[in-house]
């Protein structure tokens, strides 16, 4: 098994980016990563900078930026806290319903766009506040949030769902399946 020079160079570049991000928090690691991608692509693969940038998933990037701003505003202006307060109020003192409400809320938040990692990051503080308020174990609430976020990760609106739909659409003709018949599978 031969490992190409470009593969080794990309792993070294990734290690350098990670080390720099640990040492210097003021530097934008995304820009640094793109710079290293252009250098590795040009020096070790013979690609032009334009060809490296053409392979960058711009549509996915724009979705992530938009959803990040949307949920950043929702977190800042208190919408997420109000949403959970209303959700707990719907339970009307029945604490057995709270895990179900948190699960559905996390699934909803993850499904509409941010993906499972951002969904966990958005819902974890809110879920922990609910768990503390009603006396639930934090570990149980953690399992609920993570399970719901990972379950909803393959929504066609979430980043992993977009990626998996693209992979399925590319592989379907190779398997003799019409790509249109798989719409909405992931």
Task: Set down the secondary structure blueprint.
Layout: H1 5-23, H2 29-45, H3 49-54, H4 58-76, H5 79-91, H6 98-111, H7 115-134, H8 138-151, H9 159-171
Q: Characteristics of this structure?
A:
single chain; 186 residues; 0% strand; mainly alpha; 73% helix
Shape: globular
* Percent range of helical residues: over 70%
Radius of gyration: 21 Å
Q: Which stretches are poorly predicted, pLDDT < 50 over at least 5 residues?
A: none
Structural write-up:
- The chain has 186 residues and is mainly α.
- The protein is built from nine helices and no strands.
- It has helices at 5-23, 29-45, 49-54, 58-76, 79-91, 98-111, 115-134, 138-151, 159-171.
- Helix 5 crosses helix 7 and helix 6 (98-111) runs antiparallel to helix 7 (115-134).
- It is globular, with a radius of gyration of 21 Å.
Compact summary:
The protein has helices at 5-23, 29-45, 49-54, 58-76, 79-91, 98-111, 115-134, 138-151, 159-171. The chain has 186 residues and is an all-alpha fold.
């Amino acid at each position: 098994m031969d490992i190409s020079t470009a593969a080794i160079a990309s792993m070294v570049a990734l290690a350098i980016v990670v080390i720099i991000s640990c040492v210097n928090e003021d530097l934008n690691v995304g820009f640094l990563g793109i710079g290293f991608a252009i250098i590795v692509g040009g020096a070790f693969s013979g690609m032009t900078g334009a060809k490296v940038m053409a392979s960058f998933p711009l549509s996915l990037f724009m979705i992530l930026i938009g959803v990040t701003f949307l949920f950043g505003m929702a977190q800042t202006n208190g919408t997420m806290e109000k949403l959970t307060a209303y959700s707990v109020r719907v339970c009307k003192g029945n604490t057995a319903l709270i895990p179900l409400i948190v699960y559905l809320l996390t699934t909803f938040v993850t499904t509409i766009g941010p993906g499972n990692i951002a969904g966990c990051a958005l819902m974890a503080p809110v879920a922990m506040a609910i768990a503390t308020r009603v006396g639930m174990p934090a570990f149980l609430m953690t399992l609920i949030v993570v399970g719901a976020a990972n379950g909803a990760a393959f929504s066609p609106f979430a980043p992993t769902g977009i990626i998996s739909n693209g992979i399925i659409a590319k592989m379907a003709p190779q398997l003799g399946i019409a790509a249109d018949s798989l719409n909405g599978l992931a």
